[in-house]
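Q&A FORM
Asked by: J.P.
Topic: structure of Protein nrt1 ptr family 3.1

PROVIDED:
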Amino acid sequence: MEVMKKKENTSRKMKGGMITMPFIFANEICEKLAVVGFGANMIIYLTNELHLPLTKAANTLTNFGGTASLTPLLGAFIADTFAGRFWTITIASIIYQMGMIILTLSAILPQLRPPTCKSDEICKEANSGQLAILYISLLLTAFGSGGIRPCVVAFGAEQFDETNPNQKTQTWKFFNWYYFCMGFSMLIAVTVIVYIQDNIGWGIGFGIPTIAMLISIIVFIFGYPLYRNLDPAGSPFTRLLQVCVAAYKKRKLDMVSDPNFLYQNEELDADISTAGKLVHTKQMKFLDRAAIVTEEDNPKSPNLWRLNTVHRVEELKSVIRMGPIWASGIILITAYAQQHTFSVQQAKTMDRHLIKSFEIPAASMTVFTLTTMLCTICFYDRVFVPIARKFTGLERGISFLSRMAIGFFISVLATLVAGFIEVKRKEAALTHGLIDQGKAIVPISVFWLVPQYCLHGVAEAFMSIGHLEFFYDQAPESMRSTATALFWTSISAGNYLSTLLVSLVHKFTSGGGGSNWLPDNNLNKGKLEYFYWLITILQVINLMYYLFCAKFYTFKPIQVQKTEDLDSKKDSIELVHNV
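REPLIED BY: S.T.
REPLY: Here is the structure written out as tokens.
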């Protein structure tokens, strides 16, 4: 048996590494081309083709975005519990493909959308049946995303063996280049795909991403023999609940004087601590009662609803400690979400001619966000990190907490600038007598919007990648799909908060004569700049909250097996701050 296990472990270690990256990145490029090719221009599709009011269309998209970012919890549970990441990604991709096919058919078949109308006509809004087709397709893509998003990052990162010093340093670089590939495909989507949708047709514009998704599935499956597939370690949610129940049952017990008396069982924890065992921390001592051995407990065959190991208790502590940092990312997503709704509507009213014969699609303005993000990632990886490393001595230049703080600050500047740009746009509309003409093109260049888009791109390169690194690094190893799902749930919460904020502002700022900060039909008569500045104030408060949380954050301590040379191995305890 031992010989068979050794062979199995050896073959597992031989797999993975850089050789798998082309398959994973090719899958990510095609998948993101599909996702963003659908989403980037959707606000235009909903308002122009389905004739939905602006606020209803904006809330439909943010609700869909929120749902698509919430389903990763379900996908992570399935992957971590029994299916494994490879099969979860594969099945979820097929579900996503089904949703894309339905949406593409709705764009091709005239009976699945309302009739076209002229600019001076009152357009007929999509009926309940047509909206049902839309919602079914969006729901399928949301559930598909739920299996892809939490697993693909963790699956890619686990191709590098953390017990191998040569591969471990590649993990943080993986996050940078994962985001770079994702950004590159998004750049293609918001330029080529959006242009096709606006100028050739929605059927072809949706059909190309659908084909790209099919290619991504084929490429991903083709690389199966090379992947390092880790077995699922059982439901992480069950383990967390077991610790809570055990701690509650023993709530009246006195704490042990020495943490070394708390329950340890390496054999029991073997499957959930292959990269190292979590060691005891002094925070949240009330949870330590779950690891106190009493006369009623059987240490050799414990009832996990009464007795848990220190490692399992520390898993729960790690998740709880990540909570405040998780929450800080919500408001940044709320700010970022406006690029795909109100910023697109701003661009739609401005002069978008690059040359006389070529007009930039409004939804393609996010090309400036993506280009800036890609340039920032390259600059960060090739220039900033080597320079910072000389001063900090850290392999990754600065900690992911510092990286996130920089991103938060730049995002504040982005929404602050966006408000002033909207003032400038409305001044041009007033000067040329276009205030009452909501569909008229204001004679001001769309390139005035470039600063806010670029600042959002820089902010994302710092904050979003730092946030993703944080979740992967600080989560217990057996919960990394779940941890990545937490990253997406912060995006979900940010989208839902955007929906709530838009709805509340639209409701409470309505006045006589149809005045409103966020009017449905004429941005020129609104106060969009006040909405941007409201988000700026919320972001400043959030930045102060984040700095407080980061200052008092405790990094997870882990006992790892360190190889000193080829002939001798010894255990050592090190605090893996991974900063």
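FOLLOW-UP: Confidence is low (pLDDT under 50) at residues 1-12, 562-579.
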